[in-house]
């Protein structure tokens, strides 16, 4: 598996696409469930729903992250000097669903609101440059096709309060440098940082270390758990270092990603749903439709950390101050907005959850196992999820993290010495 080639959401706007099945992050529908017809029109219409705020009110993700994002946007905007001509905002792992342009809409709305509250009518508005980043396999065409409609509706919705803004695509891994030093004011990333730069190398060297599993689950050896944890620590530390170099002094980051509430890694909530997907693959192995060796060599480049694990890496990096951190939960069924432990229809919830997972995993599974198993695999998976939800309603733990970059040290950490004149220390 090559992450930069194979890891992308299911493209287009068809029934199994990510654009149609990304309601876990945010839903652009006022009904309990999007219809197939409406979802197929999503590529042209989701910009309209973002601007008119037709959102399901119970959607926990948007309710939890919107205030945190608006606060970070306001702080970044307020910190700009009068001479600053542009505010640079980057959305890392933008994907191509309805939540892609939502970030643009939310940032513009927060800036417009702040200008109105501060009565900045006489001050020239700051220009906003957006960079939408994802891996090269992302369906950027779907995003770009929606921009013209988005711009027209933005101008109509926000009027004169709308700041001048520009949107560009930026393909590349966020585990590499993406921007020049000290050039970005705000980074945003939603439901991406649980993905690793690669699966632990030891799992891909031929020896079967995690038999029958694609990720951490009940039968996973502790040694494999430690490999996954180490990969998370290395990747997250690298991510923080890269972004700190690219952020202006005091720049902000708002990160939302799947985490873990259960302290027992082998019983993590996200691990559970991937364990059910592994069981579906095992069923196909028993039917001789999938080779056992294929399953044993399929290892996800993924890790859902606990809040304590996130804090530990933050402390190790010593590059950011934590303005806000919390964990909330979101139902497996993206169309289930009920709090509590009640599942009204476990069969339908199984189907809904399976569609959501398929939109994310279809490219990875298709590349490794072949396209011919997709329909039957996710049908069995939906049944597995339904049986699980009949026993217990399980939820995704989601970590929301708001960070502020600390000022750069006066001298480089590697001991090199530069002229204070060259560094403008005396100016």
TrEMBL record:
GO terms for molecular function: metal ion binding; methyltransferase activity. Gene3D superfamilies: Methyltransferase, alpha-helical capping domain, Vaccinia Virus protein VP39. The keyword Magnesium applies. Keywords: Magnesium, Metal-binding. It comes from the Eukaryota. SUPFAM superfamilies: S-adenosyl-L-methionine-dependent methyltransferases. The keyword Magnesium applies. It holds the Pfam family Methyltransf_7. Signal peptide: none annotated. Belongs to the methyltransferase superfamily. Type-7 methyltransferase family. SABATH subfamily. This is Jasmonate O-methyltransferase. It comes from Eragrostis curvula.
């Amino acid at each position: 598996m090559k992450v930069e080639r194979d890891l992308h959401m299911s493209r287009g706007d068809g029934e199994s696409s990510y654009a149609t099945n990304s309601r876990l992050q945010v839903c652009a529908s006022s009904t309990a469930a999007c219809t197939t017809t409406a979802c197929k029109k999503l590529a042209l219409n989701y910009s309209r729903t973002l601007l008119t705020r037709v959102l399901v009110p119970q959607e926990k993700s948007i309710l939890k992250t919107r205030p945190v994002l608006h606060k970070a946007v306001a702080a970044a905007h307020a910190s700009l000097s009068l001479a600053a001509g542009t505010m640079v905002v980057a959305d890392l792992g933008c994907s191509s669903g309805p939540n892609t342009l939502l970030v643009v809409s939310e940032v513009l709305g927060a800036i417009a609101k702040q200008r109105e509250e501060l009565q900045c009518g006489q001050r020239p508005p700051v220009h906003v440059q957006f960079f939408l980043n994802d891996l090269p396999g992302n369906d950027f065409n779907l995003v770009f096709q929606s921009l013209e409609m988005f711009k027209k509706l933005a101008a109509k919705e926000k009027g004169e309060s709308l700041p001048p803004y520009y949107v560009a695509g930026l393909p590349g891994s966020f585990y590499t440098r993406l921007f020049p030093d000290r050039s970005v004011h705000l980074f945003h990333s939603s439901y991406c940082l649980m993905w690793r730069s690669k699966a632990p190398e030891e799992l891909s060297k031929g020896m079967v270390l995690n038999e029958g599993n694609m990720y951490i689950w009940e039968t996973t050896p502790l040694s494999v758990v430690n490999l996954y944890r180490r990969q998370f620590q290395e990747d997250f530390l690298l991510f923080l270092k890269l972004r700190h170099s690219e952020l202006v002094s005091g720049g902000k980051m708002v990160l939302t990603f799947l985490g873990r509430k259960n302290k027992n890694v082998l019983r993590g909530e996200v691990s559970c749903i991937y364990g059910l997907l592994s069981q579906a693959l095992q069923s196909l192995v028993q039917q001789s439709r999938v080779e056992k060796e294929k399953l044993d060599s399929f290892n996800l480049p993924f890790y859902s950390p606990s809040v304590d694990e996130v804090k530990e890496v933050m402390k190790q990096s010593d590059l950011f101050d934590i303005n806000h951190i919390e964990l909330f939960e979101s139902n497996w069924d993206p169309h289930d907005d009920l709090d509590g432990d009640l599942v009204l229809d476990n069969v339908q919830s199984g189907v809904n959850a399976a569609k959501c997972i398929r939109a994310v995993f279809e490219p990875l599974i298709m590349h490794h196992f072949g396209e011919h198993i997709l329909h039957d695999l996710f049908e069995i998976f939906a049944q597995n999820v339904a049986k699980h939800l009949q026993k217990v309603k399980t939820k995704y733990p989601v970590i929301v993290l708001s960070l502020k970059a600390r000022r750069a040290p006066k001298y480089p950490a590697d001991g090199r010495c530069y002229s204070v004149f060259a560094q403008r220390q005396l100016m």
